[in-house]
């Protein structure tokens, strides 16, 4: 339905109007990483999972 994409686009529009030059975020869900990358975010770090821990990814996007 595109709700996630529209939400991110609105958040980015607000950030731009406030003069921000970009954004970074982190996610625990392995399914979310491809979603953000599809929207132009690039991976810049991560923490591996293991022992019941879920991997954590850090992504960024410059405007």
Automatic annotation (TrEMBL):
Residue ranges occupied by any N-acetyltransferase domain in the UniProt entry: 1-63
Domain of life: Bacteria
Gene3D superfamilies in the cross-refs: 3.40.630.30
Protein name as annotated: GNAT family N-acetyltransferase
């Amino acid at each position: 339905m595109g709700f996630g994409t529209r939400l991110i686009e609105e958040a980015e529009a607000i950030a731009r109007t406030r003069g921000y030059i970009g954004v970074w975020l982190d996610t625990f869900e392995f399914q979310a990483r491809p979603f953000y990358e599809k929207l132009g975010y690039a991976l810049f770090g991560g923490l591996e999972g293991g022992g019941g821990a879920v991997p954590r990814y850090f992504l960024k996007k410059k405007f």
